[in-house]
User: Fold Cytochrome p450 monooxygenase from Colletotrichum asianum.
Amino acid sequence: MASSSPVAHPSSWADTALPLGLELRPHGYIITASLVVLVTSVAFKLAKRDNSIPFVDPPTWLRPRPLARMDFLKTGMSVLDKAKSAVADKPFRVLSENGDLTVLPPRFAHSIRNEDDLNFGAFIKADFHYGIAGFEPFGFVDHDSQILQNVVRKQLTKYLNTVTEPLPLETAFAANHIFGESPEWRSVPAKDAILDLVARLSSRVFLGDELCRNEAWLRVTKDYTVISFMAAMKLTFVPRPLRPLVHWFLPDCRLVRQHLAQARALINGVIEQRRAAKREAAAKGGEAPSYNDAIEWAEMECKGQAYDAAVFQLTLSFAAIHTTTDLLAQTMLFLANQPELITPLREEVVQLLKAEGWRKTALYNMKLMDSALKETQRMKPNSMFQMRRLATKDITLDEGITIRRGERVVVDASAMKDPKIHGEDVDTYDIYRFRRMREEPSKMHKAQLVTTSPEHLAFGHGQHACPGRFFASNEVKVALCHLLLKYDWKLAPGNTADPFVVGVARQINPKTVIMFRRRKEELDVDSLDFAVEGGERE
Assistant:
């Protein structure tokens, strides 16, 4: 989630003393009002809480809630370890940087997976200040029209092969643009480079030819998520009733609004041009122009209802581009840390593409690559808290656990590194782990990258599992084919593949530098055709 433009990383303010930084110096009446609201709110929540669930590392008079929440940014993993030692395999509560959470053990993932009264969209709205100007994309996840869900399920996933078709050529262009043709070793911040690559590939599918190489749009789509996450985190330390006022004075919130305005100007211009072309064709009795991208799909799914196209596109961006970047970049870092692992992956790619070209069966049969990607997710989940949900009514879960309306629930993702499930070498990056599992008939399905389970929550689980994971799998595999065949990779001296930990989030370190050089590929992947098969639309 970085770019060439000067945007702060979410970790850059974690060590500061004040949650709002030095940009905001509220007057005494704002501080007083904040304290009154905070005390009243905490008292009300404590009165409602199910006290049978232990609270681990709670705030104290000497360590009040605001300080405890900031501490969690530094101590989140140790608090999680402390909790699991204290309560074993039972639910517990913690005070995270975003407020109170009930943390459920991994076994609860299956029982809550389709629970209608535990809502993912409501969780996102609450954490990212839906209703405050600039944060509209975070509400589109739970929009009544279901445009986003319909576009992903009915278009992006249903016509996956057709959607994937332009990716090989766009990857060839983007890889050459970013990494070049030099046979000499060069270096680049890994996260920046991979974010640029993924933004270009995703924008080709989401926005078509008009904007996928538009540098202004690429800057907006890359930067909006970083800026909005920063702004949301700072704003969360302001009592909720005061946020509609305070956000106008926060520089980060001002940047969020500016980026949304830029996105609207770019997207709305393209949409109006397309609508005008269709009107002109209709007036002349000709065939209307057709497009195979998310702009067109949203126009189809809105069914004539008004919607904010820029908000829709930015929602796609933070839901797809940045999570895909995390997976691809971390995989590249693991492989660059152990370059000997690249050889068997190259051999698999050459064998399958030479035999089948860019057919969907070739991507599906890249079982070692699929295993390596799933192993990346297992080794570095983007957070140890998965399946984020907000209770829309009082609910009783298995084992008599009561969750009150408005409370937030997450599932502990520690099963992904449980030696009882994955073997004693859980701290070793083993690209063969899930390929071996795939050879067992009873585990064949569970071992695939796109399959979710309580033991592997990288894509969530149940009705709110990531619906775009099938496209993301194809996108990352196409990108890896180009990157591994065309370039040699290694970590720059002094760098590691270790993530940067903030709270319980495990992010790619934005300072990690990767080295690369152009090599002679065993197969000219740029010349291969992509076949549209199996009844998909042309």
